[in-house]
Design brief:
2 domains, 12-stranded mixed beta sheet, Peroxisomal Thiolase, Chain A, domain 1, 417 residues, 12 helices, 16 strands
């Protein structure tokens, strides 16, 4: 029996999961190329949005210029925005992988694992307002087909004819990374040959903004929105809410070889854990974070010295960043390069882990570590090598990508060349 979720033994060439395609919809742009240029340049996306004027905070990181007619959305009007983002990212990932969903050799061997922290938040909020104002007859019959958290996974399966396992993990802000780890395990166990894996969220809504604002999780730096998300900075005061989707096409190495596909990278390790401490605050010593990172290393058969770069969860909240830096230092030492791309994108919640896994693949392909945007005064308690004055160029063979969610749910991916 292959190892279960969370890892515990190195992969072999027979069951290695390779990445053959990636797709991105984020505040940094629609598509991989546009995203990567902005992330490497460290150009923030945060802005004040007039349509959020009645919310507790009108500052957020929104996906730009996204009409429902975007390529890959044949039935976009039936989708909540989180599903629109997910299907669009999946379309790009499949195209980049050279896969034609109309010509699957065996569609039952194609799985979908698409995580989300909030599902169709915008749809559900809108329909609640309609019901309160106009009564139950004003509620759309599409409310649940659009709003349920599994619908991005379900619609991807329908859109692309994927008849294998179709799963929708929800581990809050770790959902996208968890989905990729589960997708890797489906390949390991032989349950699929191809997995469309990732995460999506679109909850820049009055309720989500208000709830996070009331928790004290959001930055108040409204006088300079562009610099509000500043992971690891001594002046950080909270995260910025974002939206988007990231999708990776995973294949068994044998399947990719047989069809002549060139692997972009490999999912070499996956570690999952729980803090078992508090519903929103991380364990003060990073107990769960350290466990997830060590599990991922053990799963990949790698040591601390093998990791070239950590794409940190790095939310720009005071607690997360200090605890995560402490955990990274404990597991990997003080010299590993660390950055957070949330200085550019903000925090897209359940999509974050998948988006950042895609960035990890691009870091390996291009030999570049993106900087942490807006990090001008590193907090002296961060005893790691923070990349912040600009991108760092050179060989990148092993990337660790961390994702930590409310509920104390943690997921770490190890992505290798």
């Amino acid at each position: 029996m292959a190892d279960s979720i969370g890892g515990g033994g190195a992969t072999t060439s027979a069951n290695t999961a390779v990445v053959t395609g990636i797709g991105l919809v984020t505040p940094a742009g629609i598509g991989v190329s546009e995203n990567w240029k902005r992330v490497v340049a460290g150009i923030p996306t945060a802005a004040i949005h007039a349509e959020l004027a009645d919310c507790a905070l009108s500052m957020a990181c929104c996906v730009p210029d996204f009409p429902p007619g975007t390529p890959g959305l044949r039935r976009g009007w039936q989708f909540d925005p989180f599903t629109q983002f997910a299907v669009t990212a999946a379309h790009e990932a499949l195209t980049r992988a050279g896969l034609d969903p109309d010509a699957w050799p065996d569609s039952s061997r194609v799985a979908v694992v698409l995580g989300s922290g909030s599902g169709g938040a915008a749809t559900m909020e809108e329909q609640i307002v309609r019901m309160r104002r106009g009564g139950p007859n004003r509620v759309s019959p599409l409310t649940l087909p659009m709003g349920l958290a599994n619908m991005a996974a379900g619609q991807i399966a329908i859109e692309f004819g994927a008849q294998g396992p179709c799963l929708a993990p929800s581990t809050a802000c770790a959902s996208g990374a968890t989905a990729i780890g589960i997708g890797r395990d489906l390949l390991r166990t032989g349950a699929a040959d191809i997995v469309i894996a990732g995460g999506a969220d679109a909850c820049i809504t009055p309720m989500y903004i208000s709830a996070l604002f009331r928790m004290g999780a959001l930055s108040r730096r409204t006088d300079d929105a562009g610099t509000a998300s500043r992971p690891f900075d001594v002046d950080r005061d909270g995260m910025l809410l974002a939206e988007g989707a990231g999708v990776l096409i995973l294949e068994s190495e044998e399947h990719a070889r047989q069809r002549g596909a060139r692997p972009l990278a490999r999912i070499a390790g996956f570690g999952a854990s729980a803090d078992a401490h508090h519903v929103t605050s991380p364990h003060p010593e990073g107990r769960g974070a350290k466990l997830a990172m060590r599990n991922a290393l053990a799963d990949a058969g790698l040591g601390a010295g093998d990791v070239d770069y950590v794409n940190a969860h790095g939310t720009s909240t005071p607690l997360n960043d200090s605890v995560e830096a402490k955990a990274i230092h404990a597991v990997l030492g003080p010299d590993v390069a660390v950055s957070s791309t949330k200085g550019v994108t903000g925090h897209p919640l359940g999509a974050a882990g998948a988006i950042e896994a895609a960035y990890a693949v691009l870091a390996i392909l291009d030999g570049v570590i993106p900087p942490t945007a807006n990090l001008t005064r590193p907090d002296p308690v961060m005893a790691v090598d923070l990349v912040h004055t600009g991108a760092r160029y050179g060989p990148v063979d092993v990337v660790m990508s961390n994702s930590f969610g409310f509920g104390g749910q943690n997921a770490t991916l190890l992505i290798t060349a």
